[in-house]
Amino acid sequence: MARHEIEFSGLLDVAQLRKDCEAVLERGADKILEMRAALLPIFRKASNESRDRARELLAEDGSGLNCAERISYVQDQLITIIFETVTAKLYPTAAAQVSVTAVGGYGRGTLAPGSDIDLLFLLPAKNTDEMRKAIEFLLYVLWDLGFKVGHATRTVDECIALSKQDMTIRTAVLEMRFICGRKLLSDELQYRFDSEIVSHGAEDFIAAKLGERDQRHQKAGDTRYLVEPNVKEGKGGLRDIQTLFWITKYHYRVRDTAQLVKLGVLSRREWRLFQKAEDFLWAVRCQMHFVTGKAEERLSFDIQREIAANLGYNNRPNLSAVERFMKHYFLVTKDVGDLTRILCAALEEEQAKPAPGITGVIGRFRRRVRRLPGSSEFVEDRGRIALADPEVFKRDPVSIIRLFHVADLHGLEYHPDALQAITRSLHLIDDKLREDAEANRLFLSILTSRLEPALTLRRMNEAGVLGRFIPEFGKIVAMMQFSMYHHYTVDEHLIRAVEALSDIDKGRFADEHPLANKLMPSIEEREALYVAVLLHDIAKGRQEDHSIAGARVARKLGPRFGLKPKQVELVAWLIDQHLLMSMVAQTRDLHDRKTVTDFADKVQSLDRLKALLVLTICDIRAVGPGVWNGWKGQLLRTLYYETELLLSGGFSEVSRKERAKAAEEALANALDSWSQKDRKTYSKLHYQPYLLSVALEDQLRHAQFIRDADKGGQALATMVRTDSFRAITEITVLAPDHPRLLSIIAGACAAAGSNIADAQIYTTTDGRALDTILINREFPDDEDELRRAKTVCRMIEDVLSGKKRLPEVIATRAKAKKKNKTFTVHPSVTISNTLSNKFTVIEVEGLDRTGLLADITVVLADLSLDIHSARITTFGEKVIDTFYVTDLVGSKITNENRQGTIVQRLKTVLSEQEDELRRGMPSGIIAPDPVAVRAGNPPRKTRADA
């Protein structure tokens, strides 16, 4: 919207502001500092009131561009009146020779509430110190008012010379706008810039701007579908719109994008889309600055809800207000991408015309296109697929799908004209095309391509084809999930999952996924696996469980894609159970036989097991950067191998007692270099759970560790081992057993800022605890990680020995960590006696916070429950912690009243974050008596296997 169409009169009383300034001058404030001090309250009041009014008007009309232009207008008036004051009182002759101009976004007449104010001061060729002092006065007033001002002071000659050398300066001058002062200088710069810079061709400028855009996108993850996007710098954000503005202004010599319609570059519909996108993004950006009170460009979770409410979004049955807002945001950024393609196509057509004097063979060669083998509809134009003629899609709509198939086969990029033609032909994708056997055959070939299927699917999605061809997919395009765990929108997640599957299929990342790479060639139903990976989250956003609804969608789409009934059922089962393997691996004790037998009962066949493993890996990898790690891979491999044994009939039938005895003998034999006495002592230190679940290699390390501690007279000792492959660091603690030992260790880890991934808890036959805590690795370099782990060990030792009080160190950590007010997770506690033959399994789900694990384990100790193993799992802001427990005599918890007490106490802990933070310390954490630890007194309970 043009500035003259916006109402500015109610924003700032310019006449009154001038009178107030004149009153200051009349009072005779001759000294510069006195005058500045007298003017500041006047300008601060005017600025604050004007911005408050701009915010009110944004709430009323919802127009981001109007808001940005209103704030720019107010800034213009403030600068003009300050400069008039300088001219009138301090430097009347010198200041009159200076031209004050706006550049950057401010130069376009738009300004966000917290944006920098970019100014270019133009001086005549013969300039004086007085002129620079006038500029300095203006800058100091702006700085004192709290504005961030970027500025440059140059002559016209300097601007022209620098514009020839530096693209950033050239861009700034391109956007220059006169504010006040001597207009003749800005007019001169504008004229010379057009005649000496712009008229010499736009190729270098366009290439530089598009190159900057690509680098910016790469830095931001090269996707517009990040759930916490950067509204200014991200893909499809305001900077991309500004890049289009720079290019069109430079190449077509226009001042307004509306002129692109007259030039035939954009259709009227596309130009309106341009306006709507810019207006929406400005509304979001202005709201972000108003809400945070600063120049915040990242649309983070903690402000998304408030901005959604401010922009008028409401909850719907299937989508919350914030999810509706974010979906709109991602669709707008997609529109920006479409506009970029259209404009680039037009620019390329302009630049592809032969230069004057280039004719004949050379001219024809430069524009030569060639037919693609086996295709009459498409041609290759400089490595990109293009249409042989404009009527291709009208004659045969199946060619819309075929274009992507042919591009994939030949490894071609897409000509912008072809993509533009697709965008304008989306109405041809109807039910008839969706049911067409050839179209579905081509799509399945694209999806299962041995080349780059994810790249092709992403192009289809960006062009709008994927959502039209598969309407169920269209429902989740640009859909975000309001959680810290998911980094991408649902459609981007699914395409990235296909990309992960393709990588495994090609044998990539064999070091990270050795088992999946080994199994992939033996998976018979390869097509079914690809379809399952693409569709596994297709029913997200529905009120029904997305796994169940997704299986139903798969049964509908499978036959359409040409899958056989057996394949369709496999796809439906994989989608229905796609979370099963991940949840079992991460939240269950994999050394408990009941875990494996229950899982095997659901999987039933090795073919399903193989496909589910690969799907699970792809799903986790596609969640976001850093979500996958070697520890999760190890858990999945362990579950796979244990289940494979059972499904193939190879599960050991030897009794638990016999296997434990054999393991004890194996340990004794492996200690053959030790004395007979030591071999006997240290091989008989452990109960069955330890002997059956700990690898012999680790048993040997532990034996050496315990013997060294005994020789050194250490009642308390720690040992560290890093594991870069699993991205885990092991901390093993040897200490006298204590009812709250795990709580104390967990609290010490939390105080040291480390994330616990798993806990292996054992008691030795002489009453000591041998606990191994697995923490997530933080540093890639082993030396750095070892230093960090030793810091954690010192914290554990200090707390256990009484040198530090746990409530104090936890409280310090809790204060340092920003409190999470953004997300809510309904506390849940589940108690089951069917998940294990020996233990009661307690699963706790809630909002993560510092010291939570320590608090939970304190409650379990208070309730006289013996923790035999624990699984600690974090999904973004949510934790799911699982504890395998018995009472103190080794029995399951079967009494309903006692179970109810456990649930109530744990829910209280999960809900008491507010109280804890207010108190400044977590509840219930008690350090053991340091004397007892040092003296090695017998524990008050044992965690022995009953």
From TrEMBL:
The ACT domain, residue ranges: 730-807, 841-920
EC number(s) from the headed UniProt entry: 2.7.7.59, 3.1.4.-
Classification via CDD domains: ACT_ACR-UUR-like_2, ACT_UUR-like_1, HDc, NT_GlnE_GlnD_like
UniProt keyword terms in alphabetical order: Hydrolase, Magnesium, Multifunctional enzyme, Nucleotidyltransferase, Repeat, Transferase
Stretch list, region Disordered: 921-946
Region annotated Uridylyltransferase, chain positions: 1-373
Residue ranges of domain HD in the record: 490-606
Single annotated GO MF: phosphoric diester hydrolase activity
Cofactor(s) essential for the protein: Mg(2+)
Record GO biological process: regulation of nitrogen utilization
Top-level taxonomic group: Bacteria
Keyword Nucleotidyltransferase: yes
Role: Modifies, by uridylylation and deuridylylation, the PII regulatory proteins (GlnB and homologs), in response to the nitrogen status of the cell that GlnD senses through the glutamine level. Under low glutamine levels, catalyzes the conversion of the PII proteins and UTP to PII-UMP and PPi, while under higher glutamine levels, GlnD hydrolyzes PII-UMP to PII and UMP (deuridylylation). Thus, controls uridylylation state and activity of the PII proteins, and plays an important role in the regulation of nitrogen metabolism.
Domains: entry comment: Has four distinct domains: an N-terminal nucleotidyltransferase (NT) domain responsible for UTase activity, a central HD domain that encodes UR activity, and two C-terminal ACT domains that seem to have a role in glutamine sensing.
Name this protein carries in UniProt: Bifunctional uridylyltransferase/uridylyl-removing enzyme
